[in-house]
Every structure is written in C-alpha cells, then in structure tokens.
Amino acid sequence: MSVSDPLLKKLKGFVLEFRTNDIVVTDDNENLAKLCCVLEEIFQKGIKKSKWFDKSDYFWPWVAKIPSFSKERCNPILSMVIDTVKESKKVTLDLGRGRLFIRSALMKKVLTVPVQIIAKNRQLATEVYYENDSILGNEILAEILQSLLFELTEAHFQLRVHNASFLDKTWNLPIYKQYELVPCDNLGLHVQYINGFLLVKAVEPGSVAEENDKIHAGDVIDELYGEALRGNKMSVVHNILQKYKGLPVHIHVVKGFDSQGNLYKPIQHLIEDADVDITTAEELIQVKKDNSNDYKKPPHTILNEEEAEEIPVHGSEGGATYDAHYLGYVTLGLDGRVVRIEDSVLGVLRNHTQRVAVKMELTEKEVLVIDTKEEKNLLEHSYTEISACGRRTDQLKYIAYIAGETTCSLAKKFNCYVFEMRTNEEARFALCGIAQGFERTHLLL
After folding, report:
1. Backbone angles phi, psi at 402, to 5 degrees
2. Where residue 71 falls among pLDDT bands split at 50, 70, 90?
3. Cα gap 236→241, rounded to integer Å
C-alpha cells in the first residue's frame, strides 16, 4: 500500500519545474507564491495547539525554538535565519513570521533542516503534530518531504527578503523598490502612519522624491537607511532623517500600484482607512472631508509604563482640555529626539522661575496653551511641529513635549516645554492625547 499526500504531489511538481528548467527563481516568478503556499500548508497540516509552544495554531513557534531544544549543534545558517526572523519588525504575527522563515530558508537552502530535526525527534513530532492527519508527524511522509526539500535546494532562489511587511496578510507580494536619493532638506513627501504603515499621501511636484517617477501617492515607505519603519512613530522617522542629514537618502518603498496600474489590496485598505482618494499613480491625492468625530484609535505614546488599552482623550467636540501649570522650556537646538525629554524636565524643575496656571487644549490639529489669568495664548504648536512627548518615570506629574519652529522634519530650533499636571492620571491622558495627535497628522518629509 503506497503512502502519499496531495500536498507532496504538488510540491513534487514545483521541484521538477524549478530543477529541470534550471532557472533563477525570483519574486517575479508566477509559481513562487504557489510553492510557498504549499510549503506553508505542509508545515501547518495536522498541527496541535501544544502547551510547549503557547498553544499556537502556527508552525513558527516550534521552529523558532529549534536552537534551544535540538540535542545536536544546530545548523549555524538555520540559527541565523531564525534569529533574523525573530528580530524582524516587518512581521508581527506567527503567521507572518512563518512565511518570512519559509522565504529566508529557501534563499539559504536550509528548509530541509527543521524537517530532519523533527523526523529524528519523535517526542517533538508527537507533541507538535497529529500522526494520522499530518505530514511532519508521519515518519514515512516526513521522509518523503525531506527528499523533496533536498532536491529543492538545487534550485536557485534570489528573493528580496526585505519585501516582508505584508506577509502577515498575504503571500502575494507587492512591487518593492530601493532608491538612493540626493541629499536634501525636503524629500517632498506628505506621509502619515496608518495601521502601523507609513503611507505616502502626496508627492510635491518637482521634489527629489518625484524625480523620474520614483515615489507616488499610495506607496508605503518601508525602510530608511536600513531601519524598518513599520510600527514606529513619526518622531522615529524624524530622528532617522536628522541622524543622516546631509547624506544620500537610502529609502525602500513598497509600491501601491502594480505594473498594470492596479492598487495592491493591502495598501488599498490603508488608503481607505486614511480616508483619501488616490485615482491613479500619477495624480496627487484628494483628501475627503471628515464629517464625523467617530475616529477611534489606540493611543500611541513613548511611555514605557503605558497600558495597551484605548483611552478616551477626546471630548464630544473632538478636543480635550486639561488644567495645568506651565513651568518653562529648554532650548535643544537641532536635537528634537525623544531621549531629550528626561534631562529637559529635570533641568526645568531645577531652574524654573515661573509657574503659570494654564489650560492645555488638545484640538484635532494643534496643542494650545492658554494663560488662565491673562486669557491669552502662551503656546501654539501644530502636531506636525511636535517631534516627541513624554515624562520621567520618577516625576509622573510632570510632562513635556518637544516642538520645532516649523514642521519637525525641517525644523532647526527645537524647544522642550514642561508642564505640571494635577494628577499622574491626567498627565498620562494628556500625553496620550498629544501622541495620538501627531501620529494621525500627516508629516512632510
């Protein structure tokens, strides 16, 4: 009686194709995504929710722990691949990490190694897979799989493993470009973080970014100078640009449109969430009018102690007001980084000579600080001018934000403004409101 599985037959077909044609397999190969889907299904088939691996539904957790429970010295290339996937900021789910692992392991020719390990370690195989409903849990099928994967190592894969930011959502990869732009103070990009992705909302005509149709509205900025931007904050983007100011700009871009001019589905969802209308890759965006105040988003803050829960910081009219005392500011020059918050707060607390009662109003577009007694504006900063906000962990009532004289990516004169709030809790709410404001406001790079 022959033992086989439909997934192994599909895999065999791909192995024969890639071996006999003797081609270099790139991301443009129409069968690459199909091959990866089959490999994912093989690793997923018959998987248990093992307590050893946090009862996960995916194969990545057990693969990730191979270096720690393998009795023999782990293959150093496999260990390198696993560590790279663990450290990647571009995938956040076990699903996405498993997919990045498959692509990376194909590139480094080590996909057969975890199969060999689990085939030898029957205790591990029994813990992770159901024997009768899986390939990796069945000794005979696992041996067939090893042979096919060994054959697959003879194929030549040249994949852009940097193109990983949407693997949490799909195997269908977008067009991915790397550019080196000339040094400049203004790239001409209007960007906004949407669901953790830095979406280009508009490109200024005649700018460096627009030259030769490099970057368009609807693209996603994926990396700057080799640093992944997914899940970061506007202040991080600003700090990266400041760090490399005067040098050529190395930028990685996920293209919003394919070669036929069709929107890439995951980016289409970002555009919809951003409430913008991009009609073609050549046209600038048209911003729709916002007729409601039902915007809700988990607040982003640089506070380490902040809870990961949604906090209501806006009132019924879209703003929030807090009673506070303004203590003064510290001049920071070109340095608008968040790390300057702690020493700035300490400096103002040691040397401040004023304590002005104020109302801090957080509107949809700016922070207003109004002198309660004089009834006049003391400070007025749009969220695009604010590069960071935070507080010291040992002085929780005192908060601060850093703002420049213009859009923070172009500013050359930063000040850190320090306030005393009534309670620790109000301080936390106010910081979340400020952070929420400059995260949802688009920035000119």
Report:
1. -105, 130
2. low
3. 9
